[in-house]
Write a structure and sequence with these properties.
Shape: globular
Distance between the termini: 40 Å
Helix content: under 10%
Structural class: mainly beta
Strand content: 35-45%
Length: 455
């Protein structure tokens, strides 16, 4: 929400704040402090709307001034003179010539923090597979920060199995949204949904019989959404950012299964980042600066189109990758590596995470600790992950994985290693689903971490 008062608002000085920026100059740094909850606000001006072709709404009326502004929920992590640094980057270019942007204090009075749902099965009773008189959603996160769901199974909802609404920093892991009961038509079967939410991770989930299995439905308020290692079975249509300028979405190692490969070309699309024209409520340009990475399409297609002022990317798609969708053609989107398996890195998200951890050490050893073992990332994992260990001096090291019965099932490191940090890949493809212990032994000390292998 916005407090409409000039005393807690500041214009951004920069002519352009590029995609991926975490800092910029502001006019009035004195009204902010480190730790403040803020919103970076980019109004939907006439000039900006003209630059994006009125939203690209085909036969519908174009978006109006004031509709679909960009608003980024952030926390101030640094102030140095007029320069403000935030906890997460931008996902759309902020161009002052098109729309002067500003920062204001964000109201968190109703925010719920540090809450989760684990190992819950929600089985909704219904009249039948096409009825809609039962519960709309199985699980909702509303106004949540730092929340999670893990090991949840939801059946027979008619709209969403798990919906993340007006929230940020939420992780949905190792969960299933199965067999929705509803008509197969609009506003239904959004098995895993975000709506007006940001910085959300969906990892290792399974959806069946969806219309839009992994979907952003919150317009320009959705950004920074990652779908990693998820499976969609027997989908009717595409996972996508659904409408009106969602930004910074990533579908990483996405897998389509079942009957999703029926048909051909645009009619068989199961991933779509681009233009939805006059579908629904003037959906228009639905995804900007979005990426599909290393997706297995099972005979179906992915559509990747370039929005005005932005770009979309399709890299390493194992299936037909099209730059023309239902409403636009020859858009200039960036597509490469189609039908080329084994491209590296296998996961864009995990590689970027690895780079960030390398730049910013987490949980370093104390001055008297000879060793330190970092958490497994991601956790839970499906096929592969990584960890890091640190040594204060050269030493013999053994890093192994043990099952629940205490049996060594993988040996990852064994021998002399130099002082400093060492990254370790964990190839878990041959491990059965379950909980495992990673153990580092060196210099008479032992360190352990637990992780879960998903099916």
């Amino acid at each position: 929400t916005r407090r409409d008062a000039t005393r807690d608002t500041s214009l951004i000085r920069d002519d352009v704040v590029p995609i991926g920026a975490r800092s910029f100059e502001i006019e009035r740094p004195e009204v902010f402090s480190v730790g403040d909850a803020v919103t970076v606000f980019h109004p939907a001006t006439e000039a900006w709307l003209a630059a994006i072709d009125g939203g690209g709404t085909a036969e519908d009326a174009p978006w109006g001034v004031g509709q679909h502004p960009i608003a980024l929920a952030r926390t101030v992590t640094g102030l140095d003179g007029h320069r403000m640094t935030l906890d997460a980057p931008t996902f759309t270019r902020l161009d002052a010539r098109l729309s002067p942007s500003y920062v204001y204090h964000r109201d968190r009075s109703r925010t719920i923090e540090n809450v989760g749902v684990e190992n819950l099965r929600v089985h909704i009773e219904t009249v039948g597979p096409t009825s809609e008189t039962h519960a709309k959603d199985a699980i909702r996160f509303v106004l949540v920060e730092n929340g999670w769901a893990s090991g949840v199974t939801a059946l027979h909802f008619w709209r969403a199995g798990i919906s993340v609404q007006h929230s940020r920093y939420v992780t949905i892991a190792a969960s299933a949204a199965l067999e929705p009961h509803s008509q197969v038509t609009g506003a239904r079967r959004y098995n895993f949904e975000v709506s007006q939410s940001q910085l959300v991770l969906f990892i290792g989930n399974r959806a069946t019989d969806a219309r839009h299995a992994y979907v952003g439905n919150g317009t320009s308020y959705d950004s920074g959404i990652v779908f990693l290692d998820n499976v969609s079975e027997d989908a009717f249509t595409s996972s996508e950012s659904h409408r009106q300028w969602g930004s910074g979405f990533l579908w990483d190692r996405h897998v389509e299964r079942g009957t999703s490969g029926s048909g051909s070309g645009v009619a068989a699309r199961r991933l779509h980042i681009g233009n939805r024209g006059d579908f629904g409520t003037s959906h228009g340009w639905a995804c900007a600066n979005c990426v599909i990475w290393n997706a297995e399409m099972n005979g179906s297609s992915a559509v990747i189109e370039k929005p005005p002022t932005a770009q979309n990317y399709g890299i390493g798609i194992q299936g037909e990758a099209l730059d023309s969708g239902p409403f636009v053609s020859n858009t200039g989107s960036f597509i490469e590596g189609t039908f080329r398996p084994g491209l590296a890195p296998g996961s864009l998200y995990l590689r970027q995470l690895q780079d960030r951890l390398a730049a910013t050490s987490i949980e370093p050893p104390g001055t008297s600790d000879p060793i330190a073992l970092y958490p497994v990332v991601p956790n839970p994992l499906r096929e592969s992950g990584f960890t890091r260990f640190e040594l204060l001096e050269v030493a013999v090291v053994r890093v192994s994985v043990y099952d629940a019965l205490g049996r060594e099932v993988l040996r990852l490191e064994d021998g002399w290693r130099a002082a400093g940090s060492h990254d370790v890949e964990i190839e878990a493809r041959d491990l059965a689903p379950g909980v495992y212990t990673l153990r580092l032994v060196s210099s008479g000390a032992t360190a352990t971490r637990r992780f879960t292998r998903l099916p």
